[in-house]
What does this fold into?
Amino acid sequence: MPDSSDTSPPQRQVWRWGVIAVAVMILALAFAYVGGWLTPRRLTPQRIVNALQDNGGVHPGYRRNHAKGICVAGYFEGSGAASAYSTASVFRNVRTPVVGRFAIPGGNPYAPDGSTAIRSLALRFDLPHGQQWRTGMNNIPVFVVATPEAFYQLTVATRPDPATGKPDPARAGAFFASHPEAAAFLAWAKSHKPSASFATDSYDALDAFYLVDAHGQQHAARWRVVPEASDEVGAAPKSDDNDFLSQDLQQRLAAAPQRWRLLVTLAAPGDPTNDATKAWPVDRTTIDAGTLVIESEQPQDSGPCRDINYDPTVLPEGIRISDDPLLPARSAAYADSYLRRTREEAHFPGTAQADAAKPESK
It folds into this structure.
């Protein structure tokens, strides 16, 4: 009598195909979950970027946020002072090439420079052996919200009303009333006087990171860059010039390189590393890590920054991300935005360049 465990060749083939089918199904379900198809209420990078796109409009080939910007290049001269806290070569007494981008927030690449008081500076440090350090900073001392979910809700709450082109005050007010953590940002926004130049602003990374020393010990840190230049007395943004920030930077760089000090602040025990809405006390240890020198600029449609995704989680050895929930969310959303705009350029070569040549973009 045959052994009941024996399986005929046709049965074995069916069994194998069944295993393959189950594996494919599991993979498909995994992709569906990541894409949010099975959990439509779950926040995904696509939903965040869609919300940004809904606010700023669709401009093929451009970033979905901070769409209007200018490429810059230069170097960072490390002072060596931060080397005791991090093994990253950028902090040694060496020169590291930098490719950066100044920008204003929003998805409209034609927005007037005076439409917002917020400016940004993104940098890519090109370290030896193919390592990179990418960081995105803003001229604000704290972020407006602490979580990706709150950022998404804020984006929806401040969506421009088609009738007025501005956010609905009642809807925006209701959001801020339910998010008291935004109070520090709102206080800054109420009192802040916009500078007249990209070159005279300080830029803060806001999120916490860990510096890792030669012994493997982690040191919670935040960093910012502080300019050596300053606004002239009475200087103010030019309300009649939509592109005054890029023109001012061009003029300054034609005269001389522009410089910032990179200041690294170390946390004390108990300082929050997972909440970018909370500033650390001003008496914390701050290290002058070196000098950022910007030497040149180029239009973003043809400059070296165009194809860079300034993902703040791209870090060299000696720097690690913290438990701040905004960091992985920023990484994922940046990647989605990058894929959208590069796909648009691939399907419609010259999209951004042709779009920039439209009369309304001048």
